[in-house]
Amino acid sequence: PAAMAEGAAVSADALSPVTAGFLWGAFAAEVAALAALAVLVVVIAVRCLRGRFFDAGTVRLLWATSWVALGYLLVVSVVVTLGTNLALRDLDLAWRDLDAMDWRWFVLLYLFMMFVSLMAVAFRRAAAMSRNQEGLI
């Protein structure tokens, strides 16, 4: 109720079921993607702490992390934008009243995805060099 008075929340009764479905679906997808990213990062950290830097498993985990981050960027961003635009329609607000996208979070996650992709390429090349040099790297 206090958040509704400040304009930070909307009553579910004011939204159509489709709008609510989009917004709840975006929330569920965001939670699932962030949980998957957290688990993947922890598994990568544990593997690296055990000294398994340049093996195929670490490279695959890095690629998986990059793909999950990309999926988060595309799926969650699109569904949130659709849900927000539908909410603006349901509430008779102009599209200028609310930005449907949190651009700072989007840019940070994009940079994270690019960094993890770069690490995956570097680790894959290091793994190939390690095999060629008989483990001296």
Q: How would you portray this structure in words?
A:
The chain has 137 residues and is mainly alpha-helical. The chain is 75% helix and 0% strand. Helix 2 (17-49) runs antiparallel to helix 3 and helix 3 (56-90) runs antiparallel to helix 4. The longest helix has 35 residues, at 56-90. The N and C termini lie far apart (60 Å).
In short:
This protein is mostly helical.
Supply the key terms:
mainly alpha; 75% helix; 137 residues; elongated
Structural class by secondary-structure content: mainly alpha
Distance between the termini: 60 Å
Strand content: under 5%
In helices, the fraction of residues equals over 70%
* Average pLDDT figure: 85
Largest sheet: none
**Gross geometry:** elongated
**How many helical elements?**
4
- Report the order of strands and helices: HHHH
Residue ranges: pLDDT <50 for 5 or more in a row?
Answer: none
Radius of gyration: 20 Å
How many strand elements?
Answer: 0
SSE layout and pairing:
Elements (H helix, E strand, L loop, with lengths): L1 H5 L10 H33 L6 H35 L12 H30 L5
Helix pairs in contact: 2-3, 3-4
